């Protein structure tokens, strides 16, 4: 298990939101925390701690009036920690190279490779050809429905037809170097992890996976390590003291052994 930090940017500000509340219309979201610091501040902090593999997520669509502010904040973070952070949010073959040139170690992609609820493998191949699988992270965040965990896209607003299964992970791993998986139903709620999802992911052996969603205390970290068989990396948002929570950053690092 490794700790992977985050910088979520919405309407040009670093925030922690309740994931399922995000709406493109009027750029709305239920906020847990709005920082007085810019994204570069957090990037420099992570750089000082020598923690790599964190993700910067742009939560506004390109059609938003706030998109340029959000993108500029993302650029500040990437330039403050070259090679130390991944970037996600509206990434496609046309702009992936721009973010990599600005300092991103990887780009994180989800919505671009889905259409009408299905995976577009032709688009995945296009991305791999453009930037290489070693610089591509796939976000296959999900919601739990009656028949299992379904992948969600478009800033977690669209539910696809794809179930997270070992077979799907095997297939998608051929196109990327890592997975980022938000348990959207518990994202931003600090109310406990998705245990079934952690078990499902922990039983799969493949590329690295970063789990996000629901961690609110050190018992959750212990549980995630146990259920995930120490194979899952973890990110913590609203519960972390950097974002107004009670979990101390250094104690989290000590727990995971970083």
Q: In terms of structural class, how would the helical and strand content be classed?
A: alpha/beta
Supply the number of helical segments: 8
Uncertain runs with pLDDT below 50, 5 residues or more? none
Mean pLDDT: 91
What is the correct CATH architecture?
Answer: Alpha-Beta Barrel
In the CATH hierarchy, the third-tier topology is known as TIM Barrel
The CATH homologous superfamily name equals Aldolase class I
What is the strand arrangement across the widest sheet?
3-2-1-4-5-6-9-13-14-15
Question: What share of the residues does DSSP label as strand, in percent?
Answer: 15-25%
Please tell me what the overall shape is.
Answer: globular
How many angstroms separate the termini? 9 Å
| Helical content band | 25-40%
Radius of gyration: 17 Å
Order of helices and strands: EEEHEHEHEEEHEEEEHEHEHEH
What's the CATH C level?
A: Alpha Beta
**Biggest β-sheet strands, sense, barrel:** 10 strands, mixed
Number of strands: 15
Task: Please supply descriptive tags for the structure shown above.
single chain, 258 residues, alpha/beta, TIM Barrel, ten-stranded mixed sheet, three-stranded antiparallel sheet, 8 helices
